[in-house]
Every structure is written in C-alpha cells, then in structure tokens.
Amino acid sequence: MAIYKAPLRDMQFVLNEVFEAGKLWQSMDATQEVTPDLADAILEEGAKLTENELFPLNRSGDEEGCRFEGGQVFTPKGFKEAYQALSEGGWMGLGGNPEYGGQGMPKMLTVLFEEMLYAANASFTLYPSLNNGATLLLDSHASEEIKAKYLPTMYEGRWIGTMCLTEPHSGTDLGLIRTKAEPKGDGTYTLTGNKIWITGGEHDLAENIIHLVLAKLPDAPPGTKGISLFLVPKLKVHEDNSLGDFNNVNCGSIEHKMGIKGSATCVINFDGSEGIMIGEPNRGLAAMFTMMNYERLSIGIQGLGLGEVAYQSAMDFSRERLQSRAPTGPKCPDKPADPILVHPDVRRMALNARAFNEASRAFASYVGMQLDISKYHSDETQRKHAADLVALLTPIAKAFITDRGFEATVEAQQIYGGSGYCREWGAEQYVRDARIAQIYEGTNGIQCMDLMGRKVYANGGEFVRLFTKDVREFLAATANNPAMQARNAQLETELVRLEALTEKVIAATKANPEEIGAAAADYLNLFGLVAYAYMWAKMAAVAVEKADSDTSGFYQSKLQVADHYFKRILPRTLALEQQVLAGAEVLMAMPEDAFYTHLQ
Amino acid sequence: MAIYKAPLRDMQFVLNEVFEAGKLWQSMDATQEVTPDLADAILEEGAKLTENELFPLNRSGDEEGCRFEGGQVFTPKGFKEAYQALSEGGWMGLGGNPEYGGQGMPKMLTVLFEEMLYAANASFTLYPSLNNGATLLLDSHASEEIKAKYLPTMYEGRWIGTMCLTEPHSGTDLGLIRTKAEPKGDGTYTLTGNKIWITGGEHDLAENIIHLVLAKLPDAPPGTKGISLFLVPKLKVHEDNSLGDFNNVNCGSIEHKMGIKGSATCVINFDGSEGIMIGEPNRGLAAMFTMMNYERLSIGIQGLGLGEVAYQSAMDFSRERLQSRAPTGPKCPDKPADPILVHPDVRRMALNARAFNEASRAFASYVGMQLDISKYHSDETQRKHAADLVALLTPIAKAFITDRGFEATVEAQQIYGGSGYCREWGAEQYVRDARIAQIYEGTNGIQCMDLMGRKVYANGGEFVRLFTKDVREFLAATANNPAMQARNAQLETELVRLEALTEKVIAATKANPEEIGAAAADYLNLFGLVAYAYMWAKMAAVAVEKADSDTSGFYQSKLQVADHYFKRILPRTLALEQQVLAGAEVLMAMPEDAFYTHLQ
C-alpha cells in the first residue's frame, strides 16, 4: 500500500550540511533566531502532522472528491478537521510576517515543510498553499490598513486566500480578461465577471474566503497594461473584523478532473461583488506576479512531494513482491522468488526517481535560500544578486521539478506492474495528482518561454552568468579534492555546453523571434539537468568527506545515487543540445492547415 | 471536444506506397485475392464502424465503467449493441483462418483496423482483441476437433476468448502459478485456482466465454516447464455446440482502475471447472506465447491508436483556442488573439505526437508484413527470415509504440492547457487509457529484457543483423537519390551506433549477466528510435518523388514531419547510448536496504 514518512534525515542533510543554513540565518537580522535546533524541531512536528493527519486522508479524499450542492462546496471527509489542526498548530502562518502574527520562518525551511504537505496530501495542500501566496502578495503590495486587517486572520487560517486570474477565453493570455471593476465613489469597487479554475474558490474549511482578483477598470488600456488587482471577500468584513453580508461571490460549479479530486476547482462568478484595490490601478499583473512566483515554486514542490511519496511506496511494494530470480542466481533461496529489486531494470526506475527527488529537494532549498537572501540580507548587492537568481531559477523550479516529479511517479507506478494501475494501491493517484503540476500555474511551456525570453534573452544571458559563476566558485572550492575530480570535470563540461547554447540561442533570436519558443522547452530541460548536476556535486562534496567514517550508509548512498545521476541521467543533455540547435525552421515549416487535415 | 477520424489517407500511403502490400499479397497463395481495392474497401467500412459506433461510447464508457453485481459484470451502456454490430459485420474473424469461417485477411491490413478500434474505444477493443489472440492460439495449437468446434463460433463473436495467466503472487514469474488441473480420466480435467487481472473474464457481450488457462498438472515439474494450457468454457458446450450447464467459473470481483474503465478486469475463480488440454502436457507456456505475441503487437497498437486520437483532438482544440500573438506579429489581426498553433512550442508538442504516430503506424505495418511472410510465404528461408525479424521486433512493437503512444497522449493533453486536465474534454482519458499499455501484456521492462536477452544476446546479435541488413538494402536502393542523402547518412550513423552498442552489450554480458537488465530499457529505446528513423526514411523516399507534383500537401507534410523526427527526436540516441554504456555497476552498487531507509 501507499506509505509516507517525511525524509527528515535528507532534509537535515540539505539544510545543515549542504547549505549550512544555520550560518546564513545567523547572519541576517530577520532570521537570527532560527537555530538549526529550532528548524529540526519544526520539521519533526511537521512530519508528525503530515504523516498522521493528512496522509490518511489522501486516498479517501481522492475516492470521495469534492461535492457541489446548492452553490456550496463540501470537501472530503476529514479535510475540515485536518485544516483545523493545521491552523491551530500555527502552520498557516509559518512563513508569514511576524509584524502581523506570522512565524517569520525562512523560505529555506518552509519549502521542506511544503514538500511534506504535498507528499502527504496534494489536494489538501492546495488550500493552504494559495493562502501562503495570497498573504505574501498582501504583505508586499497592500496598504498598512489592509495588512493589519487581513493578515493576522489569514495567518490564523480563519480566512483563506485564493487567486482569481483565468476566464474561459483567457488563460495564458491574461490581456484578454473581461471581468470589470467599477468604482463606487467611496474607494471601493463593484466587480462583475466570471472566473474559472479557481482552486479553493469555494469550500467549507474556513470562515471566509479572500479572493485576489484580476479585473479591468472602465477606462483601462487594452491588454496586460490595463489589469488591476482587487481583494474581494466572500463575506463582507466589518470594521471590527466581524463578518457581514454575502458579497455576491457565487460558485457556479466545480470541475471534474483527472486528479487532485479533493481540491475544489471552481467556477467563480462575481455578481456585483464589493472589492478593494490592491496596489496601483492598471499595475495589478505585476503585483499578482508576487503571488504567482510564490505559487510556481510551490507547485514545483508539489512535483517533488508526489515523486517522493511515490518512490517510498514503490519501495515498500518492491520489498514484498517476489518475482523471478536475480540474474546472478537466487538471492533468497529460501523464498519462492527474489524481491524485485534484485533486477537491474527495477533499480534503474527506482534510482531515476530517487536521483530526481533528492536533487529536487536540494534545488528547491537552493532557490528558497536565494529568496531568503533577496528578502533579508543587509547588503543590497547581495539582495539584488539573489533576486536575479530567483528570477532565473523560478521557471526551472516550476517546470523541471514538476516534469521530473511526474516522471518519478510514472517510474514508481511502473515498478508495481499491474498493481500500479489498480486504484487500491495508490500509485496511480500520484501520477494523476502530479500531472496537473505540469499544467497549472502557467503551463510548463509557459515557464520555458519565461526562462528563455525574459530571463535569458532579455538580459543577454546576464542571469545565466550569475548562475555559472556560482557553480564555478563551487568547482574552484573543491578543485583540490581528488574524490571530486571526475564529477567536477563532467559538471564543467555541462556548464560550457549550457553557456555555448545560451549564446547561440541569443544570437539566433536576434535574427528570428521564433527561436525563443523553438528552443524554450529543450533549453529549460538542459538547464535543469545542469542545475541538478550542480546539486548532486554539492551533495557529493559533503558525502565524500563523511562516507568512510559513517556506519549508517547514508553518505555512501548519496555517492551512489550521485553516480547514477551523472552516468545514467545527465547524458540527456546530449540529445537536448541537438534539439535546441535544430532551431525554429523545422517547427514552423509546416503550414497550419497541414496539422488539421483530419478536420476537413 | 474529442474527435476521431480514421487516418485512411495515411493508412493507404503506408500500405500501398511505402510497403506496396498489393504486390506482396499477390505473390502468396493465401493472400492472392486481397487486392488493394478490397483492402481499401475494408478500411473504409472499418472507419465507418469505429467512428460511428464505437467512438461515441468512449467517454460515456469511461464515466460509467463496468458494474459488478451478484457475480455478473455489466459493460457500459451501448457496448452490447456495438459488439453485436462488430460481430454481425464479420469483423471478429477478419484475420481468422478461412477453413473455419475466418476472413483470412493479412495481418498487414488487420493492424490498421485494430488501430482504428483502439483509437475509437480502447476499453471496448480489448474484448475482441483477446478473442483474436485466443482464436490464433487455438488455430495454431488445438486439435482439428477443437478447432472445428470452437473457431467458427468465436469468429462469429458469439463466443469470446480470454487469456488467464496471472495469479495474485505470480505475474511476470509464471513459474509460480498454483492453479491445478486434475485429470478426470475421460480426457478432460478439473481446474481449481484463482486468476486475477483477467481482461474480459466476465461480461454481458457474448453467449459464452472461452477461457484459455495456464495451470499445473498434479505431477508437473516445478517452474515454467510444468505449465499446461487448458480451454475452459464459462458454460459447458454440448456436442452439438448448444450450451449446457454453468462450468463453475466464477467472477469474484472487478478491479477499479486508473483507466480502461469500460474493460472488465476480473478476478476469475475456477472452482472445479471442466477443461480440455490444448497442446502437450507441460508445454502450455510455449503455446500461450502464440497468443501473447499476438497481444503484444496488439497492445502496441493500443498505444498508437490512443496517440492518434489524442493528437487529432488536440489539433481540433488548438484551432479554436486563441491565446497571445505569434512571435513574429499577429497572424489573425481580426481576432482577439492567434490560434495557439502559431507558437513554436505548441508545434513542437504536436509534431512530436505526429512523428511518433505516423512512424508507429508504419512500424506496426512492417511487423505485420513480416508476420504475413512468416506465415504465408512459399519459400521456407523467407518464412524463417521473417519469423526471426518478428521475434526481434515484437518486444519493440509492444514497448516502444506504447511508450511513444503514452508520450503522445501526454503531449496532446499539454496542448490543451487546463482543459486537458478536465474530464469533459476527453484528453485526460487518453493518458489514463494509454498508461496501461506500458504495463500489461508483459511490462515494458519485461519487453526490454526479452529483446536484450532472448532476441539479441542469446543469438549473438544474429537477428539484429537481419534488421540492419534490411535497412542497408534500403539505403543502397536509395543511394543515388540526392534528396535522400542527408537522411540516409544520419540513418547509417544510427545503424553503426546500434551495431556497436549491440556488440558491446553482448561482450559485457559474457562477463556479467546483470548487464542485460542494466542495458535493456535504454537499448530498446535506442533500437526503437533507429527503427522509426528507418520508417521515416522509407516514407520520405516515397514522398520526395511525389511532393513536387502534389497539390494536396500530403507528401510535403510527410517530409516536414520526417525532418522533425530526424532533427528533433532522433538525437535522443546520443543520451541512450551513454546510458547503456554506463553499465550495470552503477545500478547494482547500492545495497538493497539503502532503498528502503524510510521503511525502518
């Protein structure tokens, strides 16, 4: 059956040994009080909560799904109590601003707790995840008054945030939205319009739902430059924060989906709802990007969490499943057959999943670290440097982690054989739940375009050079370690490949703007592979120092999985490089009608 | 929404232009009467049946699923009538032996009809597909008396066959089965045991169900050398072929699965059921392989069919979906945005799916052609040559077509964005329905082992040389065509890569038997890519001759998709080669316990 145990040992390894988080935290005022011991204690408590309260609701939530009845949404059995436990434990404000009642924990730590949440119950986790993004947005862009009014209650989990962007005709292309916001003259606005795919748009978990809504003012310029942002509560909020009348925010229906069935995906109609503007008129999309970037990393972590729980469950299965004998002769001659992990091809699938998961964990922490530096560091140059790295790495974190997470769930399902396809074993749910992470929050294609266009081409590769410089500093620091020479040499080769390819795509794009989209997906995947090679090299550099004196096998395993990554996964860059170099022409040559011949 | 139109033009291209099937058919006694006109007429009628009768039941069948009640299985609404239409149209015996009422159509033709069936309704198609395999098995291994008794009724579809192999503890490793067959003394046997995952093990489509069951005689030697094969009808069959008493074949339950929900996957209990032995005692597994090899190609075609319908539906969606502008400026300035196919990355996904689908179609036909030659050719050397190629290519047809089919359904789903995840659009069903094809009928891992171990290593690469010789004959025949030089050179490079890798794996395996399993998956994928390159080169060689004078655009598109394949897909061999060369050590180094650390 499916099992889940939070990988605390590996989380502590990443936090304390690979990135030495304690030192960083101590060096910044805002995080000075976060000691490694405190971080450990938080992770241990988080493990208990996710393993004991959320994981047991994962499959039942999938079987039951959300129910829509009379305009109301009912979450699966147990979700409400679990949400209460999360709220009462203070987890809803874990990364929140302490000035308004948040716990102020660094992102580097909260990404690890998020991983546990998604692993234990991805559907459930979307509710708090949206709230985290919404509070971050308000903290960054709302007035003092609004922050004081909304943040404490949202950190408590009594009110919960959503993100209302998409309309039926307007998904990726937000310039097309039609939802209107008309000024009432008293500083508030009346919102009218239809939003779709609103995660947690309506449900029974919290006392109130705080929608953050993109809409257009009557005189707004067309396109994305005419989008404003509004806070629209489901129930109106009185001055004393008591709840008032229904604010005409109607749930029209919920979607029937491939997976994440415990997450309510709603049609939300604003039928003359009262809203407050957040930030400047017509600058709403920029403000919303604060939330979207947060959610993009979060959704990346959804991919990781599902990859991890899928791996763990497949290993549980593989230990019990006896089929055939090892190629070198029986390993368990007293049993009718050997456990399936004696077969090299089963190990290949398991190691693929594990190599992705552990690199994804390190990479998410690395991005979390840059987020913390960009927010809390005393030195402006350092903040800027980290913020630029975050901008570069966010689309990779979203797309590459979710692509590898999906791949990990598929590999894990395959290890089960036929049982992997039967619902009772749980493996197939992870595949279905992971698939959405590649689609929502900006499809992975959009992430690839964002990386290639805005984060690479637009600055002539400047952000890429920040990244390669960081890697080269690591290479220089470990250059004298003979145990690292082979890995470092391979990493250097890949860096050179990435740099050369970056230059070529930039040059090609100057001649033809279609080159960005043509290169985007393969370029992001190649970049992701190089970034994961960096993570594996960093992890190996710690492990080589400790493997000999270690009796637990932890560090030895790290080196073995690192080997698998370098030898059996990293070569994928060879193919991706050629695919990028193939350029746009081959993609654009076929006339559009030739794609539709069957429709004639 | 989902749409399906049988790709008749492409099927005719493959059949008549690429492989010149008419010439082959005319050269062999058994197929002499099959003219291209007859084949066309059959495909056109097949298209009508699948588009109009089966496709409309696809999504409703998925939503409704099969129902298990009081030991009986009820298929989704409409399945019974559709099955009747299929039976009455003579389609159940399309490839059957004419001596017993079959239509005797060549495999090369029936693979194309099978593709239509799977594309239109994969769940439904499993019922007739199993019957095709069962009748083939009986035709090859049963006595004259049994053939005369069972085949005509099974070709009529009034009785329908199944395949009963797996038991709860015994999937891949059939040597472990426990189902017993005890001789009654009158030439019949009493079967007792539990089988699981029996596709179509019980349902309401036909008058009787004919189970082909693997079981052990009381004195059977252990392992796979002690397996015999039995025919066990659900209802006993009198001498005059009228139906008699219930034969104690009980359906215990049906599985709840990720997909193919209209296909009943049954627990079947033989509770003292009467059976007849087929073939020799203890030689049942070899006989069953006649059916399994048939089903393996058939399941490959399931991957193709689902890839095709997913592609078609995604293109339908993409034509209507307007989001953002083309990178070079508006293509439809009169509309609020351009159709999404203006974006290179959307085209990349569409072309990937299409390049796979069209190569899979050609490859399935190529394998079908070898099957026909191996069965019907007058020259024994030719028959042997073709049979050896079939042995080599069957695992590739099963694993590579289904892997690429799954990839195609995922690419197609991604083109839809969020709609791809919502059930109403149908794209997500194709992903779920395609996923099983990588798992059942021998997991794709098992196919890879079969290729690497039995089909490559065991004969020292002899079968591989038959294949490369065939490709080199094509290369020689087109060597003087300047339009083919670049493609041919790339194909030759890939052939050399395949040959060198084959030699290396054979050599490595002599030193370490684990090398087979370590290389298997990547080797099969590399082989598949080379085989598809051969298919694309063959298709291109026809198209280059006709593209200039063609106004339909068909041949021009062929060359453009071929280009996409050669430039943006085939480079994957570079990565796979390195992964194979990495060898077994990296996979086997980690102690088993290190995979299970979270279970401690």
Main sheet: strands, sense, barrel of chain A: 7 strands, mixed
- The oligomeric status of these chains comes to homodimer
Which pair of protein chains has the largest interface, and what are the residue counts? Answer: A-B, 108 and 108 residues
Class per helix and strand makeup of chain A: alpha+beta
Distance between the termini of chain A: 49 Å
Q: What's the number of helices of chain A?
A: 19
Spell out the helices and strands of chain A N to C.
Answer: HHHHEEHHHHEEEEEEEEEHHHHHHHHHHH
Find the count of extended strands of chain A (DSSP E, 2+ residues). Answer: 11
Radius of gyration of chain A: 24 Å
In percent, how much strand structure appears in the residues of chain A?
Answer: 5-15%
Low-confidence stretches of chain A: none
Helix content of chain A: 55-70%
The shape of chain A, in one word, is globular
Let me know the average pLDDT of chain A. Answer: 97
Describe the SSE topology:
2 copies of one chain form a homodimer.
Chain A: H1 8-18, H2 21-26, H3 36-54, H4 58-64, E1 67-69, E2 72-74, H5 79-88, H6 107-120, H7 122-141, H8 144-156, E3 159-164, E4 180-183, E5 188-199, E6 208-215, E7 228-233, E8 235-237, E9 243-246, E10 249-254, E11 265-278, H9 284-320, H10 344-376, H11 380-415, H12 427-435, H13 444-457, H14 462-477, H15 485-511, H16 514-546, H17 554-568, H18 572-581, H19 585-588
Parallel strand pairs in A: 3-6
Antiparallel strand pairs in A: 1-2, 4-5, 5-11, 6-7, 7-11, 8-9, 10-11
